[in-house]
Amino acid sequence: MSSPDELARDTPPPYKRRRTGDTPSSGSSSPDVLAGNPDDFLPPRRLSQRRAGLSKSPTKTPKYLDDFSRSQSLSRPLSESVRRSRSASSSESRTRSQTPVRSSPSPTRSPRSRPRSQSPTSSNQSRSDSFSPEPQQPTPTPPREPLKPNYKARLALHGHAKAVSQVRISPNGRFIASASADATVKIWDAATGAHMDTLVGHMAGVSCVAWTPDSNTLASGSDDKAIRLWDRVTGRPKTTARKSAGQEMAPLRGHHNYIHCLAFSPKGNILASGSYDEAVFLWDVRAGRLMRSLPAHSDPVAGIDFCCDGTLVVSCSTDGLIRVWDTSTGQCLRTLVHEDNPAVSNVCFSPNGRFVLAFNLDNCIRLWDYVSGSVKKTYQGHRNEKFSIGGCFAILNGEAFVASASEDGDVILWDVKNKEVLQRVQGHKGVCFWVDVHGETMVTAGQDGSIRVYRHIGLSEEVNGNGVRSHSKTPNQGMLQGELPIRQEDARLEEALS
User: Fold this and answer.
1) What are the residues facing 463 on neighbouring strands?
2) Which CATH number characterizes residue 185's domain?
3) How confident is the model at residue 482 (pLDDT cuts 50, 70, 90)?
């Protein structure tokens, strides 16, 4: 018979409403209704691919299971006397199991059984003869309380002569771009609030701005019906990439009315624009030419956005319609309309690309599941009846919430899941037109011509002797919104919206 050591080694381990005649009916066969399985046009999920890759890794055996299998292998070679003792009467076995470990060994035990007392499970020796011990289950950790935003005013930026219509933080979180009715675009330092540059070139008020993903190019749309592309570093119009290299790119012209909204694709090669001429244009940024014109709505286009992988474009209008388009073909895949048909002043995709957030002129913000065509959540608490105001999804240390401007000058933040108002921040004197959030930084634009910057104040923040606030270092501190792991971001939204 093999020794216990040998066996142990062998054990493995607001606009004028006109008409809404193109509102589709439920029984129509218009191209607005997606044919086939609705899941077929969902953007690809990198989350599922990463999870599939993780499933291929070998499973590591928990330590307590490895110790248990080792102790079982050491207890296999039992002497004949021990086997005979197990066949004794139940009263004798109970008496033996209750005998203290310090007592002298039973005379029926053979010397071969004594090494078992030196095994790693010697404290459970008396019990291992009568039954197999169960592995200890880990104590479940209590659910983590969601982080609540706590934004405080830090900077007030002044320089525009008229109302600021829109403000955007660059994807790298370092710059702030503001568009104003004074026909200028200004660039600010997001950390210090210092004025960096003023972009002059439009002949009328500027309504919207948009950053490329690399934060080096800025697009601006104006009431002069032109779109200009700016080089952030030089403060001059962007130069052409083909033919006459080094020459400044001419403004993008083609719309027949005011430019109202702009959005860059995730790769930065396509620019989408919406105008009062009721059309959506898709532009080739590198070539500076029009790619496709979409006769989108019957009223001015108020908002536009790309999904996370750039395959879909969503547009909205004061005609009450929200439309989802295929970027490559220009086909309308879905038309969303609420039963009350309120005007829609702004729209954006959720970070995971599965939902659409719509700002309506009935004091409501609605979260749409555009595949099923149903409203998942409705957020209330702000005021929006006359103006085209804007907001966004925001991610703060992995927690998602909804931020919106309000016509009373405040900024409202909602919990995505339970629709609870998490924070109401006092902002501007007059209408707050826009709010943008990038991690711990929030910036707003208002009718009073000012730009206000807010910082999130965490619970771990302290005030040192000089009166300067400082954070205790945490793993998530300083993480930019664009740098959050896609897996974590998607998981938070899936949990909140389920």
Assistant:
1) 469
2) 2.130.10.10
3) very low
Q: How many domains does the chain have?
A: 1
Nearest CA-CA partner of 388 in 304, 323, 308: 304
Percent of the chain with pLDDT over 90: 55
Which residues make Cβ contacts (< 8 Å) with residue 435, sequence separation at least 6? 390, 391, 392, 403, 404, 405, 411, 442, 443, 444, 445
Residue 205 lies in a domain: yes
On whether residue 123 sits in a domain, the answer given is: no
Residue 257 belongs to some domain of the structure = yes
Q: Where are the beta strands (DSSP E) in 350-390?
A: 356-360, 364-369, 374-379
Question: Is residue 107 in some structural domain?
Answer: no
61 pLDDT more than 60: no
pTM (predicted TM-score): 0.67
Tell me the pLDDT tens digit for each residue of 78-88. Answer: 444 434 444 44
Q: Reduced to 3 DSSP states, what percent helix, strand and coil does the chain have, rounded to the nearest 5?
A: 15, 35, 50
Domain residues for 355? Answer: 154-456+473-497
Handedness of CA 62, 68, 73, 74 (dihedral sign): positive
**pLDDT-based confidence at residue 366 (cuts at 50, 70, 90):** very high
